[in-house]
Structures are given as C-alpha cells and as structure tokens.
Amino acid sequence: MKNEYPTVSPSEFAADSANRVDTLINNMRVTHATMPHKRAAYALELMDAKKNAISKTETIVLTGKNNKPVYKSIAVPCNGQEFFIDWLNMTADISTVGEKYRRTHEDDDQYLSLCQSAAAEISTHLVRMLGKRYAITAQNQTGRNFYKYSFVIGENYGLVCIGGQRDSFLIMLNGTGCALAPQGWQTYVHQWITKVAVKGKITRVDLAHDDLNGDYLSVDAMDELETNKGFHCGGAEPTVQHLGNWKNNDPYNKGRTLTIGNRSSGKYCRFYEKGKKEGDKESPWVRCEVEYKANDRVIPFDVLLNPSQYAMGAYPCFEGLFLFETSERIKTNRKTAQVNLNHAFNWIKNQTGKYMSFFRTFLSDAEILELIKSDDDTAVPKRLHLCHMAATLGYAA
User: Can you give the pTM of this predicted structure?
Assistant: First the structure.
C-alpha cells in the first residue's frame, strides 16, 4: 500500500534503541554498567549461546568481473547441523510492544505517528535479540506484505512491517540478515517468540544447505532424482520448473534453477547454481533451499534451534543426500516405520487373511510365500520405504 507521507529520519528509529539497549537480550531493561552481576550473567548466557550455535558466519571468495575477487559472507552450519536458516518471517500482536499502539479512532496522520512510535519500540526488541546493527534505520515510501507501512532493518537486513493486519506486525530477516547475525542469534529469537511475543507465529522459514565445491549436489542430478520420484511424498505429483537456459546447457554460465512444488503452497524446494548467479561463471557452488510457509501448516518454534531436523523430513531422498543424524530423529523414524509396518500387515490380513488360512490346509508357509511374492526381489512398496531404510541403517523397531 502506498504511503504518501514523508519518510522518517533514520536517527529517530536507531538512536533511541541504541541509547537504551547496548546488548542483545536484556528483558529487565537495565544497563549492565550499573549492575555488574547482570553483566556477568549475560556474558555466561552469550558464551552458552555461541557454544550451542547452529551456524556461524564465514567469508568466501568468488571471481567477479575482470577476475576481481568478490567477498561473500555466508552462514555455515555447525554443531552437527546440515542446514541453516536463510530467511525468517515472524508475526506478533502489537500488544507485544504496548497496548497503546493498537489503533482505535485515529485518523491517517495520527495512525502514521502511532506506527512510527511502535516501530521504534520494535527496534529495541531487534537490538536486544540481534545487536545494534539490527536497529531500524529508515522508513520506506510504501508498505510491504499487505501492511500499510514498512521500515528497513539495519543495512537492508530485512523489514519491519506494520499497519492493519489485525494490529499485528511482521519482522522479516532476509538471507543477508540471517547470515550476518551474531553467532547464536537463533537462541535469542527463540526466547523472544516463546516468552516475549504475544501471539507469536513463524509465517515463513527458509532452510538452506550449500555444496560449495559441487561434490554431491548438481541441478542435473537433482532433476534426475526428481524424475525417479525422490521428491514424491504421496498424493499428486509436485510441480517442477526449470529456470534458466537448460535447453542449451547454460552456455553463458548465468546459473540454472530447479524448483519442486508450488511457491504458494506450504512447502517449496529449489536447487540452484548459487555461485554462477552471484557472478562467478566457473563456480561449482550449488545451494539447496526448503521453504516452509504457514498457510497450510503450523511451523514449530523449534525449527529455530533444530533446522536440520525439519529440513531432512521434507523429502524422502534427503535421507541419502545429507549426513544429519540425531537420536530424536531416529526415534521418530522408528515410530513412523512401525506404524507403516503395522498398517501393511493389517491390510494384508484384512484383504487376504482368509485365503492364507485356507491355503495352509494343503500348502506349507514357504510354498505360499513363493507363490504370492513379487518377481522383483528388490521391490519396496512406497508406504514401506521408510521401514526399508530404517532396517538398512539398523534402527528399525
């Protein structure tokens, strides 16, 4: 929605939050300078968050135009993770920052001022979670994401959107904002959305994995894997698109993209030649992204702390592509495998049980099995794919 009012000076948003809060999370709204024990407790909290961080920021060098080096900061999973968060949208009720910011009978001018004040308060929350660089720095001329007004976070790290939408606000962190956030930022965001935010909700999260050397991911191999039903989760076949010059094998090395699923649905996957899209024509860098939206599912807050667990469950073929294992996931696989196995035996009993009982009056069990089993000894029913994989890995129930 167009905002015809003049933009607000960045200092009106950044200065207030920077002056009042000089650390990450500080729910007590006190300065550590005057309370040394609070500073010490915060230092321990920060050390713990960094120790258990699920990603860290690293800089890679790409070859740009005229062979000049281009430095790119990216997030890299750590502590056994395979995926990291590359995009995050969160919404919360305006009462999170103060009931006084809820619209009642204000005219447009008054409501603009109200939203600007609310944005300044939201900025202090961002600084507590992510540091000073994530204060709001400017107001856009237009709204975003169906909100009336939008404000820029830091150096284009994302947006805060406010105005309308049932008195809610949106915090959006883009790929750069997620990559440059301080190590352990997911812990602080998780604390905010579970303990501070009113009616907090994750509306979108992108989980990404980079193969910087092109060792095991390629758009051609993923396209073939999709053809062989590696991304089929039951139901209708997913929509598949090939973006870029696939027909001529990308002669100008601008990069190709394979998308699986519908962008408007709750789950969407893409593989793309990230390095080439960044301008390095010889780069083998391929990125995998799984995008979840809350339009047909509830995105659990735990995805902030365990992104790999939720990414790995997106498609059957991810079991073989990535090397992520946790006891939690094994437990889930055991339960799912057992449910599928029980369902299969119940189906066989209901459909053919009487025949089996009759056949046993004049045939042995081995003879019956030989007569009814598939001619293909390696065939695995789709429903029992997980059971087969669990048995292969040695953890089926």
Answer: 0.73
